[in-house]
Structure formats: structure tokens, C-alpha cells
Write a structure and sequence with these properties.
The complex is a heterodimer of chains A (276) and B (199). Chain A is an alpha/beta fold and 276 residues long. Chain A is built from eight helices and ten strands. In chain A, strands 2-1-3-5-4 form a five-stranded mixed β-sheet, sandwiched between helices. Chain A has a five-stranded mixed β-sheet with strand order 7-6-8-10-9. The longest helix of chain A has 17 residues, at 254-270. Chain B is an alpha+beta fold and 199 residues long. Chain B is built from eight helices and six strands, in the order H-E-E-E-H-E-H-E-H-H-H-H-H-E. A six-stranded mixed β-sheet of chain B has the order 4-5-3-2-1-6. In chain B, helix 3 (60-65) links the parallel strand 4 and strand 5 (85-89). Chain B starts with a helix and ends in a 19-residue tail after the last strand. The chains are: A alpha/beta (276), B alpha+beta (199). The interface between A and B is medium-sized, with 29 and 25 residues.
Chain lengths: 276, 199
């Protein structure tokens, strides 16, 4: 979906960030730069939960009176429904805060176009293998704090299973709730398994934690940017060929999904206010 | 007036430093240049004194992510910014982008402080609205909070770079984030002198 330029609006991309992994916020800056280069907004900024600038500081970055806020998060959940609205003082789809109008869009991960990105990533990481002999596992964090956090992944697994992509099975699995990603070999009955981490960045979870749960690494290693070792697929583990991709959010096309969410917001909430 | 325009005014009025970064104008034909404040003299020598040259703001994030010893600078107010580079910039918009990577939102916060629009929030207010894994932070006593601020953010923490490896390094330098010349003096446009003084 294309988006009309909004030369009087700012775009604020909200990410999680990390106090431990410097790669965590890289995709957010890349998405911001990609969109900035297209000249669609008067300004494009990032803010974070665990890095600077914080969400409370973000207001001081912005000159424009109208701001689109897009959570560069993978699911609806604790952060998009509790933390971001609280920190940015948003009370609904559109909120006036200190003289500025904020439009709060849905997170990128719940957009329908994510399905194509997952399939693209799965094919890239395991070229030439037969989908009929392959289980595709989409893995996320999972948390007991908000039941919605796994909905996006379950939805994507279902959409891909019904898409005709031809995978023997398409499953969802999580770090901290059932079904656990650590049990990937038991979950898959095929000789090939492709695991796509449904995270924005190759940060602490997708690059350091999940490889340990999969058995690729014996212990949590250094961050991606601090190691010269690039992992080679496939990994021959537990009698199967395991292909582990980088996080879905590192796909540069995710910038388009951010714009898609803004277009959807306009259609849903502002259609009556926009010129024909 | 935009933030970039206000930045231009700050420079014209003599402000030249933010945190550990020296801001120079009209350096060897470049409208703006940034470098570590300890590299200012090198930056004014021919070929920028051998400093690694970066064109445009793109490298600002990489330069500010790791300290010289490789530790992750997840709060950018730590006083262990890498040396050995100069960044040349073609516009005040690019200058602003670079500064917002080196010191996120610091420019906007400074301007808000200057015009009286900065909303001050106490540590207690911030802690009281925390949920999830941080909800336990609310239970800190006033005395404990004071001790926390003193030991984590105090000046002693700033003086030993090794101490910046701690999990909770100082959030902001305690000195004025922006510094300016006591009295702005004209400089030769193609060969600026080292910039003395501060507020």
C-alpha cells in the first residue's frame, strides 16, 4: 500500500531497545533512515523503552504539531497496550498531548503483510529444501503478562499453513510459555526444520538466548556485532537439519510495514477528515 | 522556529560543546564538523590531523555505541566517548541528526530548559508509574533513592572510566550539557583555533 507524503507530520518509531545488547536497536534506526530517505514526513525519530531517547524525552525531539506513533513491536501486548500509551500519555487512537496531536497506530507485527515477509525469510534461509519435508516454526517471546502477545504469531502460523506454501507443518513456539521453542525437535516430525524468530532485532533474545534453547550454542555468547563468527546453516542437531534465520524485523522491507500501518490508521480513523 | 534553526542560533551565540563533543563551523570548507573535544587541535590541522573522517551523520550511532575499550554505552551521557574521528556535515539538519544520535534528545531538552517548557519529573513519580518487572522499584525508600542517585550518578562515578562498566552508569553528566565560549571571538574560517573555555 502506498502512502501520500505527510510533509507537516512527524513519524515516531517506538522500539524496545536493550541495556545489554547494542544490536537491539539497530533495526529501528535502519527503518527510520529508510523512511527518512523517502521524504514522506517532515521528521522521523526513534524512541525506546530501554535506551535513549526515552518515550518521555521523545516529545522534545519533535517540531511538528501532528505525530504518527508506530510501535515497531512484533505483537499487541504489554508494551503496546500498557507501557507505550502510559509513557507517551496516549488515551486513544488520537490524543492531544501538550499541544501536539498524536495518532497511535497498531504495531508492525500484526499487519497482514508480515506473512509475506516470513515466507521470504524462510525461503532465503533454507534455499532448495522441499517445503513438504520441512516444518516451519515461528518463534517469539511469550509472556504471562498479556495473552495478546502470542496472538500475532499464532495468526501468522495459521495464515502460512493456509497459504499454499506447502510446508509439512507450520507451528508457533515461545521462549517463556508453551509450546516451548526448546522442544523444537520433538514438535517437528520432518527431517528439516526452519525457525524464524518473530522479533524486531537480532538482539539478546533472537541472537543470544534462542540459539541456546535450540542447542546451536552451549551458552549465551556475545552480541552479533561483537563476534566475528557468523552461524552457518544448516545445523545438524537431534537428527534433523535446523535452519535458523535472523529476526524478521531486520528485513529492511519492514519500513514498508510501518507505512502500511499509518495508511491503515488513516483509513480507519481519519478517512472522514482527509481530502478526497 | 524549528529545533535545527534554534541549534543554528546556539552556534552563532557561541555554544560550541555538547557533552564530550566539540561543534565547529566552517572547517576546511565544511559548514559543520564534530569531533571529540580532546581532538579539537588535531581536527584543525591539515587533513584533520589524521583523524578518521566521516561524511554525514550516518556514523554517529556507531561512534557512540562502543567505548574505546569495547563496552556498550547504552546511556550516552557516559564520559567515555571514543576519540580519533571527525564528522563533517553539510547542513544544520544533518548536524541535528548527528547530535541526536550522540546525545539523544539532549538538544531538545536543553532548548526546553532554556525556554521554560521543560517538564520536570521526580524519580518518585517515575518509579510510581512502573509496572511489570519494574514495579518493585516503587518500594525503594527515600533514603535508598538518595543513596542510589549518589552512588550511581554522582561525580565520583564520572571520574573513573572503568566505573562506567556498571550496569547502571550515570545518566547525564552533571555539568552543563551545552557549553559556550565566555565571549565569542572571530575565528579564521579556514583554520579555527582550539576552542577554550566554557560557561
Amino acid at each position: 500500500m502506498s502512502i501520500a507524503p505527510k510533509p507537516h507530520c512527524a513519524l515516531l518509531i517506538v522500539g524496545h531497545g536493550s541495556t545489554e545488547n547494542p544490536d537491539s536497536s539497530t533495526p529501528y534506526f535502519e527503518h527510520a533512515e529508510e523512511i527518512r530517505s523517502r521524504g514522506l514526513f517532515s521528521e522521523v525519530h526513534c524512541c525506546f523503552w530501554k535506551e535513549e531517547p526515552s518515550m518521555r524525552e521523545a516529545l522534545y525531539l519533535i517540531d511538528s504539531a501532528e505525530v504518527y506513533v508506530v510501535p515497531d513491536f512484533i505483537s499487541e501486548g504489554y508494551f503496546t497496550q500498557d507501557v507505550i500509551p502510559r509513557e507517551l500519555q496516549l488515551t486513544g487512537p488520537t490524543t492531544e498531548v501538550r499541544g501536539k496531536t498524536f495518532h497511535y497506530c497498531l504495531p508492525v507485527g500484526v499487519h497482514r503483510s508480515m506473512t509475506d515477509l516470513i515466507l521470504k525469510r524462510a525461503k532465503e534461509v533454507a534455499p532448495g529444501i522441499l517445503p513438504a519435508e520441512t516444518t516451519l516454526i515461528i518463534t517469539g517471546h511469550g509472556t504471562g503478562r498479556n495473552q495478546n502477545s502470542t496472538t500475532a504469531i499464532r495468526d501468522q502460523a495459521e495464515l502460512i499453513a493456509q497459504s499454499g506454501a506447502g510446508y509439512a507443518a507450520v507451528l508457533d513456539a515461545y521462549m517463556e510459555e508453551q509450546p516451548f521453542i526448546a522442544e523444537w525437535a520433538e514438535m517437528a516430525s520432518t527431517p528439516n526444520v526452519v525457525v524464524v524468530p518473530f522479533f524486531i532485532s537480532d538482539g539478546l533474545h533472537s541472537y543470544q538466548d534462542i540459539p541456546v534453547l535450540l542447542g546451536i550454542e552451549a551458552e549465551v555468547g556475545a552480541a552479533l556485532s561483537q563476534t566475528a563468527v557468523f552461524r552457518q546453516n544448516p545445523h545438524h542437531l537431534r537428527g534433523k537439519s535446523l535452519y535458523y534465520s535472523s529476526a524478521i524485523g531486520t528485513e529492511r522491507l519492514l519500513a514498508d510495514v510501518i507505512l502500511d500501518q499509518i495508511a491503515d490508521f488513516d483509513s480507519l480513523h481519519l478517512a472522514h477528515a482527509l481530502p478526497a | 522556529m524549528t529545533t535545527a534553526q534554534k541549534l543554528q542560533q546556539l552556534l552563532k551565540s557561541g555554544y560550541h560543546r555538547i557533552g564530550e563533543i566539540e561543534l565547529q563551523t566552517d572547517l576546511y570548507g565544511y559548514p559543520y564538523a564534530l569531533c571529540h573535544q580532546a581532538d579539537v587541535e588535531l581536527s584543525t590541522e591539515p587533513a584533520f590531523g589524521g583523524l578518521e573522517i566521516h561524511h554525514g551523520p550516518a556514523a554517529a550511532r556507531d561512534l557512540s555505541t562502543y567505548a574505546e575499550d569495547g563496552t556498550y554505552r547504552f546511556t550516552k551521557g557516559q564520559v567515555n566517548l571514543k576519540r580519533g574521528w571527525v564528522m563533517v556535515l553539510e547542513s544544520v539538519q544533518d548536524l541535528r541528526l548527528a547530535l541526536d544520535q550522540f546525545y539523544p534528545a539532549c538538544l531538545g531538552l536543553f532548548l526546553a530548559q532554556q525556554d521554560g517548557s521543560l517538564e520536570i519529573e521526580t524519580l518518585r513519580e517515575k518509579l510510581n508509574r512502573q509496572t511489570g518487572m519494574y514495579r518493585f522499584a516503587r518500594s525503594i525508600s527515600d533514603a535508598g533513592a538518595q543513596q542510589l542517585v549518589q552512588t550511581v550518578c554522582g561525580p565520583a562515578r564520572q571520574e573513573n572510566p572503568l566505573e562506567n562498566r556498571c550496569r547502571h552508569p550515570p545518566r547525564r553528566q552533571r555539568s552543563e550539557p551545552f557549553q559556550r565560549h565566555p565571549q565569542r571571538s572571530p575565528r579564521h574560517p579556514s583554520h579555527p583555533t582550539a576552542l577554550p573555555g566554557s560557561l
